[in-house]
Amino acid sequence: MKNTLLSTVLVSALSLSSCNAQDDDTTTEVSNEEKVIQLLKSIETGAQEPAAYINPNNYVQHNLGVADGIAGFVATLQALPPNSAKVNTVRTFEDGNFVFSHTDYNFFGPKIGFDIFRFEDGLIVEHWDNLQVKPELPNPSGHTMTDGTTEITDLDKTEKNKELVKNFVTDILVNGDMSKISAYFDGDNYIQHNPNIPDQLSGLGATLEALAKQGIFMKYDKIHTVLGEGNFVLAVSEGDFGEDHNSFYDLFRIENGKIAEHWDVVEKIAPKENWKNQNGKFNFPK
């Protein structure tokens, strides 16, 4: 069965690639964002056609639990329990050749995830993601990990907002310079979607203080990439939370030059001996 599906996907992908190369003027254009939405939804529906948006000859996988190439993608779909997968992509954004998405999954159990796809010539050639088990209850302020606004605004401020987020993560989360934190927020106003932290900047501070009293500390070591569209910016970082070495994906909404809202997904990085590919979790193009 797996070999049959893989053959079908490869034939479909090669056919689409040929069509794109030879018939660009007559083929109905599908946006890269829509391609991502369709591909992710195919995990639930089993539709084979969206896999044709993956370059069959060049697909680099950075999910360390999935083998490289399109064969690894298909093998993962085959391993899912029948009719178990659910996919609700809540947000998608585009930054140059990158599309990044925020999705509510049932993927080997309920999870929230961020996915990043890199495109070349209309086909997906690279994929990164971060997945976290979905909590059963909202956070202390009643928010889930995906609710909140989805409207993209301030497209002319994309680069300025990316710089703001990069500076915030560097100053506060990497360097730990808490004396600068108030400059990034509008007073105490701050909507929080982390499952364990309440709203308001004071809520964040109280939570971090309580964790520190228990000997649990969060420390970011390095920012690997910052992507954005308008008022939304995603920062991908690496660091430690307690005893675990983690990948941090933080999505921020910027309003009037200040951080107004935050969603995140934290994933423990698997030991290298358990990796199914050797592409690395954070190997982004420079």
Task: Describe this structure as you would to a colleague.
With 286 residues, the protein is an alpha+beta fold. It has 2 domains: 2-134, Roll (Nuclear Transport Factor 2, Chain: A); 155-268, Nuclear Transport Factor 2, Chain: A (Roll), CATH 3.10.450. Helices cover 27% and strands 31% of the residues. It has 5 helices and 10 strands, in the order ααβαββββαβαββββ. It has helices at residues 2-22, 32-45, 69-79, 158-174, 201-213, and strands at residues 60-61, 86-95, 98-106, 110-120, 123-133, 191-192, 218-229, 232-241, 244-255, 258-268. A 5-stranded mixed sheet has the order 1-5-4-3-2, covered by helices on one side. A hairpin with a 3-residue loop joins strand 3 and strand 4 (110-120). The protein is globular, with a radius of gyration of 20 Å. It starts with a helix and ends in an 18-residue tail after the last strand. 33% of the residues are buried. The model is unreliable at 1-5 and 21-27 (pLDDT under 50).
Summarize the structure.
The chain is an alpha+beta fold. It has two domains: 2-134, Nuclear Transport Factor 2, Chain: A (Roll); 155-268, Nuclear Transport Factor 2, Chain: A, CATH 3.10.450.50.
